[in-house]
Amino acid sequence: MPIATDSLSRIFFALADPTRRAVLERLAAGSATVGELAEPFAMSRPAISQHLGVLEDAGLIERTREGQWRRCTLRPEGLDGAERWVAEHRAAWQARFDRLDRTLEALASTRPAGPGGTDRAARDSADAETEE
Amino acid sequence: MPIATDSLSRIFFALADPTRRAVLERLAAGSATVGELAEPFAMSRPAISQHLGVLEDAGLIERTREGQWRRCTLRPEGLDGAERWVAEHRAAWQARFDRLDRTLEALASTRPAGPGGTDRAARDSADAETEE
DNA sequence: TCATCGTGTAGGCAACTGCTTACGTAAGGA
DNA sequence: TCCTTACGTAAGCAGTTGCCTACACGATGA
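Predict the joint structure of the above. Result:
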């Protein structure tokens, strides 16, 4: 991963770590200080601080000074980009495969006993017919 | 990122790279061989091959032998885990903040002229009242 | 003013990523 | 049989991650 990539990459990268996802789930129950967030993990405070830096850089949390403490708060809108990308692509891919399935049904009805092959292989063959 | 983490981490990690997302978008238009996928990128074939390995490891694509070529196909269901996680958390976070907003409104109506502070600070203060 | 608490930063280390070039392997054709 | 094509794997390099310990800094309190 090159440093400082685009916003979407930063969000997905931040989510690609169990510790950081656990921190987000903890924050979903209410804002917390760095010490409170570090407590359940077998990890030093600086390590958590660095994870928080990644989350903040991705726009998923916010750190604000509060006297002696730093309070961490979720930024729900930080997930917008990732949610939009995943939902759009998931829907588009599924729609494409549904079209292929209909194509396969049509082929099956005109050629009921075609040559052997798995469903996936048949789908791949039909694939070519939808590209030009 | 430690090697061989959980499924969700592998998916998000695979999506956290512009090149890999571009490959997925290309594949959404139809399956392709490795050479076809490598063509638009200023990158060697082995580099693309490694990216494909990451995508395959995450369950987002499938590589099948086809004579002399290797055909790559999307696995739409591979996005299921990521889609579910993002949608669930986005909804839960938003719901929580909506509740806080209502709490703030209630506070504002009972104490119309409270002490100074930004909206965010007021939200953080209200935060404590929702936790026990 | 000085000690303490909560955090961030700096420096160091092992492991991993992402890319390269070089080479190995399987399929297809002369 | 030999050559070409398509692709993967191996080895190596620079840069990054993720963790640690040590230390610096601002806020709080005696």
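The mean pLDDT of chain B is 81.
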